[in-house]
Amino acid sequence: MFAPANIPQRFRDAYARSEQGLIRDVMVKGAWVVLFVSAITNGSVLIRGRSLIEADPTWGLALRLPPLVVSILALAMHYGRFPGSSWSMPMLRLISLSAMWSIFGSLVFAYDQGGSAFRMMTELAILSIFCAALVSLRGVRGCVIPLFLPLSTFVVVMLYQGHPPLELLLKLLSFISATVIAVLVTHVLYHRRIAEFLARQKLNEMSTIDSLTGLMNRRAMTERLDSERARYHRLSHSFAVVLLDLDHFKRVNDNFGHQAGDRVLREVANRLKLHTRQQDCVGRWGGEEFLMLLPDTGEQGAMTAAEKLRTALQQHPFEIGDAPPVSQTGSFGIAIYDGRESASRLVARADQALYMAKECGRNRVVVA
Fold first, then answer.
1. Domain 218-367 belongs to what topology?
2. Is 19 tagged catalytic?
3. Options 19, 54, 288, 319, the catalytic residue
């Protein structure tokens, strides 16, 4: 999925999901609008027996049918739950392109007729330019297919038919003006959407990420615990929580200052992230306590993971600046979800196991 350069790497997955949802929503609404307009237009031709534009019947059909066919196909794929999501953008482009093909194709015939036919088609073309701009969800580069390609094709066809360039330019002045305005509108809307997306992501990050360690905060971890409990009740996949408390951490703050303590906390967070799986969740539970959520993990797997983390803390001293590196160990309490308890009760059992680890001498793993 395309992501602009000003989207930070950490937000790109969220941006891709957001854009994909927006593309699908616009595609469905656009297909319904084009389908409705096509039905009215084709119905009007059938009732009247002829089109307002004098054109060969074959050409008339070729101009009217593509928007109708593409819109029906797009809606069938959407409501038929066609697998995948990458097809939404190509279908949206086809909808825009087929609509513009119909408008500008009709304009070729209306140009020679002049009068009310050309005036009506001009108004429709200007309106369609703005509609195409609104579905150009990737800024100016998104205007290439729905706007610039049909317009340039129209100009080439008219020049090929021998129309004087200056006369053509004067008659197309309204198109050119509308196109410039539509592109500017698209540019503004696109960058405003990006700015609003970044603002939402940063606000969400501030409310769910611990500013010191970069880990999830307590609120975010609580939400993930609730989500994992719901997943357990759907799929019956066991999971474990591991509660870590740093041993004698107060001594670091007392002997070397709070800045040294912050460095230790940041390094602990880095080691926890380094030695856990991608699907595991790691958060700062409070102070010098950290909570790990291990999906699809039983008692033996949780003990193995906790021992790996305990060793990662114990084996390498922590750099704290100018002072000599300090050793830092941790005590771990494990609880496996029993299928009935609340998230708070699950963490409380892990806390009881952690208390036992402290009582038994620290720097060890205990299972509730």
1. Alpha-Beta Plaits (3.30.70)
2. no
3. 288
